[in-house]
Structures are given as C-alpha cells and as structure tokens.
Design goal:
- There is one protein chain.
- The protein is mostly helical.
- The chain folds into two domains: 360 residues, no CATH class; 30 residues.
- It is built from 15 helices and no strands.
- Helix 6 packs antiparallel against helix 10.
- It is globular.
- It starts with 5 loop residues before the first helix and ends in a 16-residue tail after the last helix.
C-alpha cells in the first residue's frame, strides 16, 4: 500500500460514490413489487434490502474478477482512466434516476470503462470476446429468460389456485413468499452489483501499483463496496421504485412472487458463472413477464419503450462521457481536477432539479391520476355509449384531477 497515491485515493472514493448511486438506483430491482403490492412498508423494505446487499457482497468475487482481470488489458490502464470511466457511469445513473427510468448501472460502468480505455490505449486494450460473452449476450438473454420464467410461473400460480377459495389466507401466503423472494433478489444483487465496484477498485489498485496483477479484491475493498451499496439501497431510489412498481404494470402478490423468484434465480446463476449481468434488465423482464402472465394483466408499453431506449443508450452514452473525461484528464493534474469539479457540479445540479418534485416513501405508490385515466379508457372501450358506468368513473376522475380554473374574458398579466 506504499504506492497509494492521491489520484488512487480519488479513484477509490469516486468508485464508492458510484457504488452508492448503484444502491439507490437499483433498490427498485428488489423491492418495487414488494412495496407496490403492500407486502412490506417502504422503509422496512429498503432496510431489509440494504442488509442483504451487504451480506451478498461477501458471497463471491467471480464478477469482480471478470471486471478487474478480463474486460480490459490491465497493463494499458492508468488510475485516471478508471476515474474517467466512473464519471461517465455516475452521471448516467443520476440522469436516469432523475427521470425515473430503471437503466443498468452495470452497463453504465462497463460503457464508461470501455470508452475511457479506448481513449487511453486504443481498441486493442478491450477484450472483445469477454465483452460479447459476459456482458452483451447476458444483457439480451437475461430479460428474456427472466420474463418467460415469470410469465410461466404466474400462469402456473393462477392455474393451481383456480377453483379454490383464495381469501385472506392465500393472499397472506403469497405476500410472505414475496418477501422471501425479494430478500433473495437483494442477496443476489449484492453478489453481482457490489462486485462490480470491487472489480473496478481492484483494477485501479493494480494500475496504481498498490496490489499485484491478478489479485483478488482485498477484504477492505469488499467491505467498503458492500457498505456503500447498502447505504445507497437504504436511502431508496423512490423514483425508479414508482416506475417499476406501478408505472410498468400492476402486480398482485402472486405475480410479485413469480417475478422476484424468477429474477433472483437468473441473477444468482449469472453471478456464479461470472457474468456481469444487469439486475435491472433481469427484474424488469420478470416484471413484464408477470404482468403478461395474469389473465387481463397489461404492460404499459409506453413506459417499457422509454425503458428499452434507455437500455440501448446506456453503454454508448457512458462510453462517450468516459472517453471525453479521459481526454481531459490526459491534459495533466489540472485536467483531472476540472473533471472532478464538473462531476460534483453536475451531480449537485441534478439533485436540485429532483427537489422540484419530491418522491419518497410517503408517496411512492400514489399514481391515482394514471389509474383514473386508464379507467376512463377502459369504460370507453367496453361501453362506447358511456351509459351507467361512465358517470361513476368520471366522478372518480374529477376527484383525482382538479378542474382547471375558468378562463377569464381577458388574459391575465401572468399569462402574458
């Protein structure tokens, strides 16, 4: 540790900051459906998820080794390159959190690292075979596998329950199962996502000469990464929890249980194989699969489309920012300082913008406006004449969305 320089310390702190954003960005993966179905109170859910994320960080280092040893050539990497990669990943995480889109923190990190590495050492420093087999292919396969599994599990649960008295006892059983499966997702998230920060810190330590090449993450790296992601998880990414829990589809406890169990299975299997999997992709796919698995269930494809676009942009957008940041840091110490100031200023600006509409544990499930509009659409589809039922729904709608003030004869001064 005698070679632990100032730039290396900056990289470690920035990596832990990314890990923190990863925590609150991905809380929705484990707890959105549990919160939306009422199986757990919001604050209890995120506290449980935080603890299990910390535990999961100690279960494996396979994904960490994929990042620190396999994705890029260690010999061509400087600590400044890692710093630039983290800048791209953090800014993408914060921007997608601001708009409530569940994009992949993992792919943001991969994109930032690839862009910064190419800017520093050229395309030859990126191991294309590892990128394809352990990053890109799992990115496509994971949501499909998790979605199909969740859809089949949902249909099976409703088929087995058909003709039986569901009642409160059955609903309570599914809620208990959903809590257990949510805990499993949190544990799986710790084994996969916390390891990515471990891997990036280990790569920086190797680049800075603080540890020898091909080293596993030191214990202090595992502990600090686990604590950072757990703290971020506890604070809760309420904006993305709202999207995953209510904005994408409406889930009943049976569906929530099926979605989380399917996602956890895919994530744990990927962690064991060392795949740098996106837990966001897995959970989002399973939620959509569960939504389609229930008869009469729907997926809000407008929200899903925005989410798919964000997924497609994550790698290239983070790569571009990482490459630009690497170019500036290459100008010298003042360039590194300039990038650090830009990161802090941009993060602060995003936080202030988010305060215009505060979403927290008190209002994360409040989406009555959307539901009321959908109810009116359903009435129009089933009863075009609007007889009988339309009045009731319209009353509900006006109670939810206040009427605009009457237009005056003359435009007001403020309107001008």
């Amino acid at each position: 540790m005698e070679n632990f320089s100032l730039i290396l310390a900056i990289v470690v702190v920035t990596a832990l900051a990314f890990d923190f954003t990863n925590g609150f960005h991905d809380t929705a993966n484990a707890m959105a459906t549990t919160i939306s179905t009422g199986a757990l109170r919001p604050k209890v859910a995120v506290a449980m998820s935080a603890v299990l994320n910390l535990v999961g960080a100690f279960l494996s280092v396979e994904v960490a080794n994929t990042i620190s040893k396999g994705l890029v050539d260690e010999s061509g990497i400087r600590p400044e390159v890692i710093f630039a990669a983290l800048v791209g990943a953090i800014l993408w995480n914060l921007l997608t959190w601001l708009v409530g889109l569940p994009s992949s923190s993992s792919h943001a990190l991969m994109g930032g690292l690839i862009g910064a590495t190419i800017a520093s050492a050229g395309t030859g420093a990126v191991h294309g075979d590892v990128l394809v087999t352990k990053v890109l292919l799992p990115a496509v396969a994971a949501p499909l596998v998790a979605g199909i599994a969740a859809m089949l599990a949902t249909r099976l649960s409703y088929t087995l329950g058909a003709g039986r008295a569901e009642g409160r006892a059955a609903e309570k059983g599914f809620r208990v199962g959903q809590i257990a499966s949510a805990g499993l997702v949190s544990l799986a998230h710790g084994t996969n996502d916390a390891q990515k920060t471990m891997g990036i810190i280990t790569l920086a330590l190797v680049a800075g000469g603080a540890v020898s090449p091909d080293s596993d993450p030191p214990v202090w790296v595992i502990l600090s990464a686990g604590l950072a992601i757990a703290l971020g998880t506890y604070l809760g990414g309420w904006r993305i929890i709202r999207t995953m829990g209510k904005g994408l589809t409406d889930l009943q406890p049976q569906q929530g249980f099926a979605a989380q169990t399917s996602a956890a299975t895919v994530i744990l299997a990927s962690s064991h194989l060392g795949f740098s999997l996106s837990t966001t992709h897995s959970v989002s796919g399973s939620v959509m699969g569960a939504g389609l698995g229930r008869k009469g269930g729907v997926v809000r494809w407008s929200t899903a489309t925005r989410m798919f676009v964000a997924w497609g942009l994550t790698l290239p957008a983070a790569a571009v920012v990482g490459a630009l940041a690497e170019y500036v840091t290459g100008l010298g110490d003042w360039g590194t300082a300039l990038v650090a100031v830009f990161l802090i200023a941009s993060s602060t600006a995003i936080w202030f913008v988010s305060r215009r509409e505060v979403i927290d544990h008190t209002n994360v499930n409040h989406v009555e406006d959307v539901k009321a509009v959908e109810d009116v659409k359903a009435v129009e589809d089933t009863d075009p004449a609007g007889a009988v039922t339309a009045g009731t729904v319209t009353d509900d709608l006006t109670a939810t969305i206040p009427s605009p003030p009457e237009a005056s004869a003359k435009p007001s001064a403020t309107a001008l």
